[in-house]
Amino acid sequence: MSLPPEKASELKQLIHQQLSKMDVHGRIREILAETIREELAPDQQHLSTEDLIKALRRRGIIDDVMKELHFVTDSVEQELPSSPKQPICFDRQSTLKKSDGTRMADSTTMLSISDPIHMVLIKTDIFGETTLVASYFLEWRSVLGSENGVTSLTVELMGVGTESKVSVGILNIKLEMYPPLNQTLSQEVVNTQLALERQKTAEKERLFLVYAKQWWREYLQIRPSHNSRLVKIFAQDENGINRPVCSYVKPLRAGRLLDTPRQAARFVNVLGYERAPVIGGGGKQEQWCTLLAFLCRNKGDCEDHANLLCSLLLGYGLEAFVCVGTKAKGVPHAWVMTCGTDGTITFWESLTGHRYIHKPTNPDEPPVAEQPKPLYPYRTIGCVFNHQMFLGNCQPSDAVETCVFDLNDESKWKPMSEEAIKSVCAPGATTSLPPFPPLCASTIDASVTSNEIEMQLRLLVSEHRKDLGLTTVWEDQLSYLLSPALASYEFERTTSISAGNEEFQDAIRRAVPDGHTFKGFPIHFVYRNARRAFATCLRSPFCEEIICCRGDQVRLAVRVRVFTYPESACAVWIMFACKYRSVL
């Protein structure tokens, strides 16, 4: 049993605040100096942990700290999916207790924790572009049977995708239990437990595969044409391992980093889009990344975006599903669907953040009847799934515009057994992926980064105009007036509500004298490379016209606004503008 990441983070913050409030660090430093000066021999330079603890306890500091910390076990029990007969609480030394509340989690209890440590290796070039090099699941429990709770391991890291069989290097790892266990297990016990788990996992996977084959045969018996539908039961991860698609989705709470489902959709949208690399010609290389690998490299394919968005929407309490189908020209695609309590079906495009309300057309209606025209880009749909359910579309047509999304109607959607899915995808199952990591706050300073990109763009524009034999005069006030427009554009992307344009337009009218012309060009990026952004802008004839503006009293302006999101993702808005005297 372990605390959820959100609770662990809150607990750390609470303890840190209390330690700072009581100036415990300062008092420890004083005791260290005093103890070394008074209690140790002049020739003894090393102060052991036991010496320090004794000194702290003798002066009553540990008691003072623990008296100020109050833990309410009832609220913890509500957050954890554990029995109320096994509360989690803390003793006076702030160590984790379990079961009867008289001891720390022992080695036997820790041996039952089957979640591996997920390690991801990322390569970042000088331009900030990231590449996924390796993804490795480390079985850490060998340390439970090692002497003194310390062990060293050597693991071989393999490549990803098409290079999953190619070694990329050797990693030396040292594992140490802290605090040390009171009693270690024999290596034989640890090895026996791991062998039993592997056997149990293999049996569960075998049974699920047998069930999935039977389900697929039944699905094809409904209608032979189902064989051509995109019904995705398994998908390969970055290591080339086949996993049930339901294991890629789990409810994910964003803490205080994202406030609304639409803001979550915007966050997923600004993560970069990149198809899995393929060697040679042929079809698309399949690679569904685990969440940690996706977040570490900050980019992925449409399936990665859809899985993350679905997980976040489930965390917000919505009934969300990943949809697998096609868009225009039969290109395979994945997006997200939510089902409202009133029956409203909403499609969420994870690559753009757009939302579409689905209103099915009735093919049996007479031609004169007015049918709603779909605004979404999706053409067909083969299946939908989340962390608990998998349903195959068994309606006569798999066209999205005619589909009815009554998922409880088994004549339209053939479900898989939820128990079968749970056996291999439920949290804690040895076959499932480890718990999703909590999202990390952005490390980017939006103001500093915005200013840096803006200065770089000014230099690039000036050099470009100089090559054309043109002088460049910047107007700072006009640049500043562009800020509200950029904020309005990002607000509209996040909420689908347009606001603030009236004030921006009024300010521009006042800033541009009579007889002058104003032109502006806004553009949006999800990266912070100024030179790359400038090259992209020059490919737009309208933007090039502004940057290369010739005329009387030409004044140029550029404004950059960086909006930060979790995992250091960002939306970068740039607006180039110019004003000049019109000559008839």
TrEMBL record:
Residues 10-69 form the CEP76 N-terminal domain. Residues 286-416 form the CEP76/DRC7 peptidase-like domain. One of its GO terms (cellular component) is centriole. Residues 96-182 form the CEP76 C2 domain. InterPro entries: CEP76 (IPR052299), CEP76-C2 (IPR028926), CEP76_C (IPR056288), CEP76_N (IPR056289), CEPT76/DRC7_peptidase-like_dom (IPR056290), Papain-like_cys_pep_sf (IPR038765). Residues 443-581 form the Centrosomal protein of 76 kDa C-terminal domain. Belongs to the CEP76 family. The keyword Cytoplasm applies. Centrosomal protein involved in regulation of centriole duplication. Required to limit centriole duplication to once per cell cycle by preventing centriole reduplication. One of its GO terms (biological process) is regulation of centriole replication. Transmembrane segments: none annotated. Coiled coil: none annotated. It is found in: Cytoplasm, Cytoskeleton, Microtubule organizing center, Centrosome, Centriole. It comes from the Eukaryota. Keywords: Cytoplasm, Cytoskeleton. Interacts with CCP110 and CEP97. This is Centrosomal protein of 76 kDa. The lineage of its organism: Eukaryota, Metazoa, Chordata, Craniata, Vertebrata.
